[in-house]
Amino acid sequence: MDPSRVHDGMNADGRAGLPPGAPPRPYFDTRTGYAPVNGPAAGVTALTRWAPLVQDALGFGFGTYTAQTVALAQTSLAAPLLVPRRRLRRLRLPPPYRSSHAYAPGFVCGTGAADPDGLCDAARAVVAAGAHLTPRRRTLIRWFDRPAASIADLAFRMLTDGGARLADYVVAELAINAFAWDATVQVWAEKLRHDAARPATLIPSILRHTPAGATFTPAVPPPPTPDYPSAVAAYCHGIAHILRALGGGALNLTIPLAAGQVGDGLPAVAGAISFDNLESLATACGESRVWGGLAFPAAVDADRTLGLAVAKEVLRTVACRAPGTPGLPPCEPGGGGGGSP
């Protein structure tokens, strides 16, 4: 095993950075120095920055509540698996809010206060997207919430349904798994750099004068991570690009689902979800983050850009590792890549 995978700095046993005898905190961030500027004690002091949610730990309203803590922030410092770090770090995204200083913590839409970054339009778009969710959309929100069990699993269909050669399938699996790791590293670097608020905390604040805004709740619990960019959207667009490049464009994208397979009793009865092509699947994946109230549209758009960029870098690197594989670009001199340099 690559030693960098064993000692990747993620603090898996939870002992790093704590005094002797302290209870371990697995994956506790001891490296990045990240700390949210907002929180249960301090309140919201920076409107556009991420704020941890306070959640009912048991789900029964018995008075046991926990505040979210950003987990796996140190993932941003992990060694890339395939794409050299210097190439990953070039894939920087523009800030989601260029005028964050213009928003006071008590900003409310519709009161005449300036809204240079369009927070109110973005908030209303998320509220509208989730106002009338169909059973299909509710199912997709949960299905895409686990991309490793949804879109990434489609690679196997290239072998079983698409008639791909075993060697080409192995290359596709290599590319997809390397992409998933390297994209996660860069997504986390961007999440920490921008530290953007999620709809779950921003919408009830800036639309609190409207019934829909004041009671806004995402369709599934949001993860304890900043909003921008949306990781799930990056995975879907990047994996779709890799599949398409390596011969998966003709896959039958009708996916059978058992009743209750994705959780919360969805789908209500056994059936299937279908997509016309990989592009429509990836688009639905990104949009599902907005339907479910998990991300703002700008976060989804940014991660489409980032996911495609990382996927192209992965294919460029794999081209020198598996020359002759149909769909790969030509191997460039020095393009073999590999890990952290």
UniProtKB/TrEMBL annotation:
<protein>
    <submittedName>
        <fullName>Uncharacterized protein</fullName>
    </submittedName>
</protein>
